[in-house]
Amino acid sequence: MSSRSLDDLLPDVAVKAKAFIASCQAAGIQTVVACTYRTDAEQTTLYAQGRTAPGPIVTDARAGQSLHNVRRALDVYPLVNGKLCGLSTQAERDLWEKLGQLGEAAGFEWAGRWVHFREYPHFQIKG
Ligand SMILES: [Zn+2]
Q1: How far is the CA of 11 from the centre of ligand 1 (A)?
Q2: So what's the pLDDT on residue 1?
Q3: How far is the CA of 125 from the centre of ligand 1 (A)?
Q4: Quick check: is 1 in a domain?
Q5: How far is the CA of 91 from the centre of ligand 1 (A)?
Q6: Domain count, the chain
Q7: Spatial separation of the C-alpha atoms in residues 61 and 124, rounded to whole Å
Q8: What is the pairing mode between strands 83-84 and 73-80?
Q9: Other Cβ atoms within 10 Å of 96 Cβ, number
Q10: CA torsion sign, 47 to 48 to 49 to 52?
Q11: Each residue of 18-54: pLDDT tens digit?
Q12: Record's InterPro entries (predicted)?
């Protein structure tokens, strides 16, 4: 099972997540939260995808290794004309960069800066 509710994050993380989403709105960026808390079982299913199950690889984290499993991470997508923002045009990449900067300003580590397995929608706060 996985949740999209900010209230399923740890309380201190939820406060920062709400401030992050509010700052996006203030900047005129529409967003959708795709995932907050994810159970270990769901993480195992996700890790199998692209390895022992069909589909593309979407995560590098096994159960217990993702900060989603401990309520410290959320996945956020900017919306363009009501659709999830892609990465194919410069305008789309600029929008992701702006989202990333707003997340960082709210106190999150942005996985869009990771060199290994970069994940543009992923924002986290380590314990
Ligand atoms: Zn994530």
Answers
A1: 18
A2: 87
A3: 11
A4: no
A5: 23
A6: 1
A7: 14
A8: antiparallel
A9: 18
A10: positive
A11: 999 999 999 999 999 999 999 999 999 999 999 999 9
A12: Peptidase_M15C, Zn_M74/Hedgehog-like
CA of 120 to the centre of ligand 1 (A): 9
Say how many Å lie between the CA of residue 74 and the centre of ligand 1: 6
Nearest 10 degrees: Cα torsion 93, 9, 126, 30: 10
Residue ranges making up the domain that contains 55: 6-124
In a domain, 106, yes or no: yes
For ligand 1, the distance from its centroid to the CA atom of residue 55, given in whole angstroms, is: 17
Flag whether pLDDT at 127 surpasses 90: no
Q: For 59-75, how does the pLDDT look when each residue is reduced to its tens digit (9 = 90+)?
A: 999 999 999 999 999 99
pLDDT tens for 77-111 read 999 999 999 999 999 999 999 999 999 999 999 99
Centroid of ligand 1 to alpha carbon of 66 (angstroms):
8
- Is residue 60 a part of any domain in this protein? yes
Query: Is 100 contained in some domain?
Result: yes
CATH number, domain of 93, equals 3.30.1380.10
CA of residue 29 to ligand 1 center, whole Å: 19
